[in-house]
User: Fold these one by one.
Assistant:
Number 1:
Amino acid sequence: MLAAAASPKVELRDVGLRYFSREGETEALKGISLSIAPSEFVAIIGPSGCGKSTLLSLISGIVAPTEGAVSIDGKPVTGPSRKVGYMLQQDYLFEWRTILENTLLGAEIQGVPLAKARERATQLLTRYGLGQFLNHLPRQLSGGMRQRAALARTLCTNPDIVLLDEPFSALDSQTRLALADEIGEILRREAKTVILVTHDIGEAISMAERVVVLSRRPGQVKSNHAIRFAVADAGRLAPLVARNAPEFNDYFRTLWQELDVHVDH
Amino acid sequence: MSTTDATAITGMSPLYRQWLRRERRGHLAVRIAQLAILAIVLVLWEVLPRAQIVNPLFTSYPSAIWPTFLQMLKSTPQQASILVHTSSTVLATIVGFTAAMIIGTATAAALWWWNGLYRVLDPYLVVANAMPKTAFVPIFYIWLGATLSIYGMSLAISLFVTVLMIYSGFQGIDPNKIKLAQTFGASKAQILIKVVLPGSVPTFIAALKVNAGLSLVGVVVGEFQSANLGLGYLIQYGSQIFKMNIVMTAVTILAIVSSLMYLAISQLESAVMRRR
């Protein structure tokens, strides 16, 4: 699915973003054009500071581009949309709310009937193994559990599009692998359109169907790579299995070169 | 962080029991030292004047306070009961710091809402906070009259520091928590109500602690000038007629009132912080 089908779910046309401060002007993103099909799982990688997280803020509608246009389902994005769920780098669970209350935050803000939302939140939390922790406070949970609660909070409003901004970066490496596997499966099963921003090449290859590489600042699309595994006939491999597939290392090498990482001495 | 009680061993090990005993002993030692300091002060205060090392006219004695208190319980045509004086001071203090908390929070919220307003008012707030508010006691007396000037002083002395503290608490809220609310499409009012205010509860408690003390200062200083009621008035009156018994009794009650306020706020703090 390299070229998106006739009607893309998310489309960016020639999008650019500049920041202004008294010290000067920064061009964060430049001429970004991307088309993402319904239910596609795309990963965006790039050197640090290339504006990959900013790209998600643009799609979510909390930041407006200074050039070009972003559209969802063919309609221009003018502000936060209910179709979009956004998972940030850390869980940012509110320490004064219980896990269930945290999960209901989006529903409360969007004014959705709470009884129904509570039912859905309980269902999601139970499915993610947090059924016994509904009335616990965030500090009583481990990092992996907190991140699963954050996923429940994101999915509780039932978005079509899920934006993941390095959602595993704050976790230890074992939890990270297990959770990436788990969350990847959940999102795929629910046929969400997913955009994952990460600095971890392995994570991108193992989870996504397509990897977009951004250049250094100002971030531009450098290349698109479709990720296919011969052993998987129609569907996708589970992320942990994908890591052992023969193609994994080839993709890894290609992307590593694309990223053009220099270590300064 | 651990979610199971894997570390809780049902039977206590001897080492743990030893550690607990040492903990308890350390705790007890602190309490004893605290009481010892109080006892030493009281004994010196009693003994030095009796031995004529200091003039008892200036200091009175701790042993004189209780009889003075009992005597002052009765109201005379000239003088209200000391309980009336005390409740007048306590009431003014509570009104003062409650008003400071409400007006201070509302002002801080307005400054948070309109950043331009904050940028304009910032220097004035800092100067107003640094001003010696007690210099305004005579002015307030002229403007507001005997009773209102006491409330005014109590409010003035704690308002600006409340605004500054709570505003900086609002500023200290993690911007990512605000971003999270925005991803759900939260309005500014929703961000204030769902993120900023509940996230600032520790700041409110800290402001309450500062305010309770400051408001009491404001009330007593206001009473020096203008009242014929209140502990501040008693201190002023007692010193004018050189009856240190009255002054020291009023000061002792002030000490007790501050301790009780401190205790009440600590109770509130531990009740609220249990949720965090």
Number 2:
Amino acid sequence: MTELLGLQSLTKAVREPNGTMRPIFDSLTFTMGSDERSVALLGRSGSGKTTLLRIIAGLDGRYDGQYVFQGTALAKHLDPLADHRRRHFGLVAQSYDLLDDFTVERNVLFGARGLEQPERRTREALALVGLEGMGKKPVTKLSGGEAQRVAIARAIIRRPTLILADEPTGALDEDTEGEILDLFTRLQESGTSFIIATHSPRVAAACHRRVMVADRRLRELGDDRGPVRAALPIAGGG
Amino acid sequence: MNASSLLRGTYGRLVAKVFVLAFLVTSLYNVFSFSRSTQDAVSQSFDDSAEVDMYGLTDRLTDPVLFEQYRKSLANLEKVTTFHDSLEQGAPAGVRLLSAFNQAMPVADFAGGQAFEHGYGTQETAQGPYEDPVLGKQVVNVKSVQLSESTFDFYNLAGQNDIDLDWGAVDYDSETIPVLLGADYDGVYAVGDRLTANYYFKPTRMRVAGFLPPNASMFYQGDINHFLDDHLVVPYPRSITGAAEADPGFYGILAFAMLNANIAVDRGQPDTVVFRTLQSAATSSGFDQYALLSVPSYLTQFASVRALVHDNFALVLTVECLVVAASLVMSGILTNSATRRRERRIRIAWELGQSRSDLGRAVLTIVAIEYASLAVVFLAVTHLLPNQDSSARTFCLTLIALLGAADLLRCRTQLRHTIRHRPRNEP
């Protein structure tokens, strides 16, 4: 199996409001193979799931350790990381991160900067997430599930290698969560990989592999070859 | 993401901010301009050295018959002219004779309009053109003031474009007297033009030596700002001793006109200096038919005007401070509101992989649009104002540039913060 990404000896601390440094990760190691389609990232609130996703996304370069993507060690400067993020990653957040005064179409186009035929790609992305014909609709008129689909369409418009989703179903009801999981499954079948930070047992169960952030490291919980461990933590964002 | 994406949804706030700041900068322009024009006005007419005790000088020959008898005597005229010159040239330091008289001047073939005519704009009735028996021509009595070099200097009068009177060339026995015209005469006469006037029944040629600047004024007979814009300014000669012999009729009037004067005594001089000076001149000339009048209204009005200006300036400054504070608060609120909206957009663009330099360019473009618009609005508004002041304008444009630079610095700091921190509870 070739490695898609690897984090080696990742150590990071954050400054608390009182000025003290709180360690988040201590020699954390994580690898994801090119053929792995989805990894669920679990953990208690504040354990560092979002921080880990931000490091993987290249939004945070302040850590010790090495980050290797497709065999290449990444620099920690934000500008090359932004370029790397644009070429390889799509981001999906619990809060959708849509622009309220834009239509559905313009929100997706917002992620298409520099692409050829952005309008055609936008239509394709919207069709892929099941929102064809809704391009002119203001995003303020969308339901939560529709809004998350717009965010996913925007994330996939550049055909990224990996989508990093932070609590993508955290604000959705069960039925809508199921629809989003179905969408994720379809995208995985077309070759896109996912790392999903979640508290949802259902989302975790839908992933091929599950890891938990605990005690400043990652602990494997299981994969398709083994059962998901019981007692998944349920709480707010972390 | 480009600047238009970033601006979207914040156009109203941008326009409001531009107008609030334009209001602020324009008000500063007005205060700066007012401050300068006030200082100029004060220094033009009443600088600190003008804080003097002022006395009025006149003759006591109030009876017309006595006056006629007195001035028909050449010996008496010699006394008067000597008395005048003693005061004009022999007064001790700190004592100045300020001769000035606003006798209307009949000018032949006058090229100006009615506004220049003596009595126009006052309760007196303008006479209009009439046949002058001395000149044998149609004349108009134009507004005029005759004054001495000391008076001219005391009120800081000066010609435009560094063209001043050559007081040494003022010779009433020569063919032509150089004169200055008020600023309103610009376009009516030009430098070098010649006028023919009936000056105390003596046909006199006058050459236009220059023009006074607009709003030139002097203190005259209780009028704190006697404006000279529409006046013909005729200089008195420096000396008239011995001149009466050649033309007793003319000098018999002129000498008494020149005694119609104020005596300015610098503060700090002994109270008796003016009396001793007059006594000395009377002794040396033999003329003692003079009377001294104090002119307290001059000082009262002068002090009042200065106080008014200063009090109002303090008031204006206070109001301006409030305007600055209110404008900055409003501008801050608008900036904050627009920044919050743009911040979310910048963060999303950053997370989608847009480079910091692209985002920085978009921010720079917005700041440039804001402050260029501000400069344009400011220039357009001040262009319409009556007070044109290039120094104030330069000051305000520099201020706009500094505000823009400060705003840009703030925006770039905000940009750095936005791409490094994600608010945990953002919707």
